[in-house]
Design goal:
Layout: E1 4-6, H1 8-19, E2 31-36, E3 40-45, H2 47-52, H3 54-68, E4 71-73
Parallel strand pairs: 1-4
Antiparallel strand pairs: 2-3
Length: 76
C-alpha cells in the first residue's frame, strides 16, 4: 500500500494532537520530526523531558510506529 506524503510540520502537529489524548504527556511537550535514513523519519525531543517523562517518550514512539505505516516524509 502506498504511503501518504506529509510535511514534517504537519506530522509534528498530528503527533501533538494525538498526545493530547493521553495524561502521561504534559502540555507543551516539545517534539520535532526529522528525516532518518533508516525508517524515513523519526521524532526527537529534549533529553531532559525524555528522562522526566519516560511514559510519554514511550507513547510518542508507539504513535510514531503507527504513523510510519501511513505516512512518508515529503521532500522539501
Amino acid at each position: 500500500m502506498a504511503r501518504t506524503r506529509i510535511s514534517s510540520t504537519d506530522l509534528t502537529a498530528l503527533i501533538a494532537e494525538r498526545l493530547q489524548r493521553f495524561s502521561e504527556c504534559p502540555d507543551g511537550f516539545a517534539i520535532a520530526v526529522i528525516p532518518d535514513g533508516e525508517s524515513g523519519w523519526t521524532v526527537v525531543m529534549n533529553a531532559g523531558k525524555r528522562r522526566r517523562h519516560p511514559s510519554c517518550a514511550r507513547r510518542i514512539e508507539r504513535i510514531a510506529k503507527q504513523l510510519r505505516r501511513v505516512y512518508v516524509l515529503a521532500e522539501d
